[in-house]
Every structure is written in structure tokens, then in C-alpha cells.
Design a protein that fits this description.
Elements lengths: L3 E6 L6 H14 L6 E6 L5 H8 L4 E5 L16 H6 L4 E4 L2 H6 L4 H13 L3 E6 L3 H5 L3 H13 L11 E4 L13 H19 L1 H6 L1 E5 L4 H8 L6 E4 L6 H12 L3
Helix pairs in contact: 1-2, 1-11, 5-7, 7-8, 10-11
The structure holds phosphoenolpyruvate.
Phosphoenolpyruvate binds next to strand 8.
Length: 254
């Protein structure tokens, strides 16, 4: 049984005060939730305030990025040890905006994944094709390559906590959601690739989230599918009412 996971990616939005105000409104809306793992990924400056505010609650706090090294002369970077030291438990790795604007590659994704696992951070590795790749029927090739490089050199025994987010780049922030058929097909490709690398047990326990314009009105249709184990939500996670409604709708299928 894979536990449903719904994660919020707040990108470069919300100050610490705005982030804790979100939680004050959000907690009562999800107080009865027990079946879904909820993760909020705010900006770096909001992490300490949110970790404090979420203590003892069923909401976990994740970072949107990290360096793979524990320390060093890397101006502007944040290390995994810095994240765990303040109580962060999850980390997004290789979001398409990081690949597009900050030169992240499959190779740096692999380094970050190894590091997250070594530091007991739960990794959410983002993969997904661009529109032109889909139009050229390259989706399977792109996903297979992204997943195989991400997992390269990692002992399957270490992959028990792995989460992958399938985020077609053409669906992120565009209001254009993948159809259930497109999403399910991509998730099956990813799961089969994980199975070929790490074995069928790891593949069966790996949660694969869908991300790309998830809203309250499409969360249920997507999350009820066999290979979709939750969602990574950008824009619609910024508002407590809409994010809690996504969780409620997705959970109906669990
Ligand atoms: C994201 O940023 O990961 C994302 C899926 O964004 P949105 O939900 O706004 O498309």
C-alpha cells in the first residue's frame, strides 16, 4: 500500500509571516486528515518558522532545493546538514524550473538524490518532458533517461523512501493539465524504469506524484489512478482553502 502524498511547492512566494499565516488557516482545514502525507515546501527563509509551527502536527516541511555537499565554499547554497539541523524532512530535487533557469542536470539530480538519502531527507525527484519532446514522441525516452541517471550508482536498498514527481513541463503553471491517460501512461513508464533498475519491490513501493496545474476540480480524477500516488502542487497550493480542497478531493480516492 502506497500512502498518498500531497506536496506544496510555494516556489518564490510568501515571507515567513505569510507562511505561518497560511498554516494558521490551513491546520483546521486538514485536522481530520490521517490518510494523506502532507508536505509544504516554502522558500528557504520560511523553513525555520514553518518547522516550528508544524511541530507535533501531521504536516511535514520540505526544502525546494539543496546542494549535495555537507559544507564548503559555495556562496548562496544550502546543504543537507543545514536542512536537517533545523528539522526539515523532505526535499524537492530537479524541479523543471531549477533545470531550466539554474542549469540543473540529470547528473546534479543524481548527486543530490544520493546526498538526500545519505542525510535521511525524503527526496521528491522531479522528472518530465517538454512539449516539443512529447510532440516528437520522445516522452518515454526522456523519462527513462531522467530516471536512470537520477538512480545511477544508488544501492536499491537505499531507495525505500524514494518519491518521484512526474511533472510534464508543458503543464506546469500553464493551466494545462495532463489527461488522466497521459499521466497514467507516464507513471507506468517511470515505475517500469524503477523496476528495471532497483527491482519490482522498490518500484511497487515508490510513490509517483503527478504535478502540473493540479486544482481542486481535477485532483480526484488524477489521484484515483492506479499508478498516481499523490500530487505536487504549485499555484493552487498557495491558498489554504484550495490546497486543503485538493487534499480532501484526492483523499476520497485513497
Ligand atoms: C510545480 O511547481 O511543481 C507545479 C506543478 O506548479 P503548478 O501546480 O502551478 O502547475
Amino acid at each position: 500500500m502506497r500512502k498518498l502524498l500531497i506536496a506544496a511547492n510555494w516556489k518564490m512566494y510568501k515571507t515567513p509571516v505569510e507562511s505561518t499565516a497560511f498554516l494558521t488557516s490551513f491546520f483546521p482545514l486538514v485536522k481530520n486528515n490521517t490518510s494523506t502525507e502532507i508536505v509544504l515546501c516554502p522558500s528557504m527563509t520560511s523553513l525555520p518558522a514553518l518547522v516550528d509551527a508544524a511541530r507535533g502536527k501531521t504536516v511535514s516541511i520540505g526544502a525546494q532545493n539543496m546542494h549535495w555537499l555537507a559544507e564548503g565554499a559555495y556562496t548562496g547554497e544550502t546543504s543537507p546538514t543545514m536542512l536537517t539541523a533545523i528539522g526539515v524532512t523532505h526535499v524537492l530535487i530537479g524541479h523543471s524550473e531549477r533545470r531550466q533557469y539554474f542549469n540543473e542536470t540529470d547528473t546534479t539530480v543524481n548527486l543530490k538524490l544520493k546526498s538526500a538519502l545519505a542525510h535521511s531527507l525524503l527526496p521528491i525527484v522531479c522528472v518530465g518532458e517538454h512539449l516539443n519532446e512529447r510532440e516528437q514522441n520522445l516522452t518515454a525516452d526522456v523519462l527513462n533517461l531522467q530516471v536512470s541517471v537520477a538512480l545511477e550508482g544508488i544501492n536499491p536498498a537505499a531507495l525505500g523512501s524514494l518519491v518521484i514527481a512526474y511533472e510534464p513541463v508543458w503543464a506546469i503553471g500553464t493551466g494545462r493539465t495532463a489527461t488522466p491517460e497521459i499521466a497514467e501512461e507516464a507513471h507506468k513508464i517511470i515505475r517500469a524504469k524503477v523496476a528495471s533498475i532497483a527491482g519490482s519491490d522498490i518500484a511497487a513501493s515508490t510513490r509517483i506524484l503527478y504535478g502540473g496545474s493540479v486544482k481542486p476540480d481535477n485532483a480526484q480524477t488524477l489521484c484515483c489512478l492506479e499508478d498516481i500516488d499523490g500530487a505536487l502542487v504549485g499555484g493552487a497550493s498557495l491558498d489554504p482553502a484550495s490546497f486543503s480542497q485538493i487534499i480532501a478531493n484526492a483523499t476520497q480516492t485513497a
